[in-house]
Amino acid sequence: MRIDKFLNSVNIVKRRTIAQDMIASGVVFIQGVAVKASREVRVGDVIEIRYLEEIKRYRVLQIPATKTIPKSAKEQYVIEA
């Protein structure tokens, strides 16, 4: 699954366009490398979002099979590291 779709699917960001803007601004990293929106996410990847004065890290546990998941199921797919 593409990184922009993944961020939206697991409820890290509200809209895919927001995810695309964040990626274009260079604040989204996987394994410490800035990514493009087309970058595929794999189980075990560490997604890092650097914005304002905060850095959030998420470890990918599972890739969702559907476009959206319930907010209560977020912990099955990512864990904040």
UniProtKB/TrEMBL annotation:
Keywords: Protein biosynthesis, RNA-binding, rRNA-binding, tRNA-binding. GO terms for biological process: rescue of stalled ribosome. It comes from the Bacteria. GO terms for molecular function: ribosomal large subunit binding; rRNA binding; tRNA binding. InterPro entries: RqcP (IPR025490), S4_RNA-bd (IPR002942), S4_RNA-bd_sf (IPR036986). Residues 1-60 form the RNA-binding S4 domain. The keyword Protein biosynthesis applies. Belongs to the RqcP family. Key component of the ribosome quality control system (RQC), a ribosome-associated complex that mediates the extraction of incompletely synthesized nascent chains from stalled ribosomes and their subsequent degradation. RqcH recruits Ala-charged tRNA, and with RqcP directs the elongation of stalled nascent chains on 50S ribosomal subunits, leading to non-templated C-terminal alanine extensions (Ala tail). The Ala tail promotes nascent chain degradation. RqcP is associated with the translocation-like movement of the peptidyl-tRNA from the A-site into the P-site. Associates with stalled 50S ribosomal subunits. Binds to RqcH, 23S rRNA and the P-site tRNA. Does not require RqcH for association with 50S subunits. This is RQC P-site tRNA stabilizing factor. The gene is rqcP.
